[in-house]
Amino acid sequence: MKVKSKPIYLLAPELKWKTFKELQDRLVRDSGPVPAHGDKILWQMMRDRKIYCWFDPYMKSDMGLGLKLPKNRAIKIITNFTQPKII
After folding, report:
1. DSSP code of 86?
2. Is residue 59 part of a domain?
3. Cα 28 from Cα 24, distance rounded (Å)
4. For the chain, what is the domain count?
5. Which helix (H) or strand (E) holds 47?
6. What are 14-31's pLDDT values in tens digits?
7. Measured between alpha carbons, how far is 87 from 74 in angstroms, rounded to an integer?
8. What are phi and psi of 54, to 5 degrees?
9. Does a structural domain hold residue 1?
């Protein structure tokens, strides 16, 4: 029997710093002390494909980090938004 669950939202490695920072500022709540420029370090590791960063509806106010993605979950990828060209 297959269990339906909510998808995780994986951040694409090509995500720009500005977009990463905005997502983190809006979705991740301060949960204690963090290293100076910790968010910039996470973004650089994600960009270099050393770690995965994702948002999970079951993990409220936090961002998932890891070397492997959760199993048996659908994945939606968050990429950079490009403004449509008006001709």
Report:
1. P
2. yes
3. 5
4. 1
5. helix 38-47
6. 999 999 999 888 888 876
7. 36
8. -150, 160
9. no
Decide if 84 is inside a domain.
no
pTM of the model: 0.81
Tokens of 34: 């963090």
pLDDT digit string (tens) for the chain, length 87 residues: 455 689 999 999 999 999 999 988 888 887 677 777 888 999 999 999 999 999 999 888 889 999 999 888 999 999 987 766 676
Query: Distance between CA 82 and CA 59 in Å, rounded?
Result: 28
Q: Classify 13 as helix, strand or coil.
A: coil
User: Residue with structure tokens 């973004």?
Assistant: 43
What value does the CA radius of gyration of the chain take, rounded to a whole number of Å? 14
Distance from C-alpha of 78 to C-alpha of 66, rounded to nearest angstrom:
17
Structure tokens at 56: 């999970």
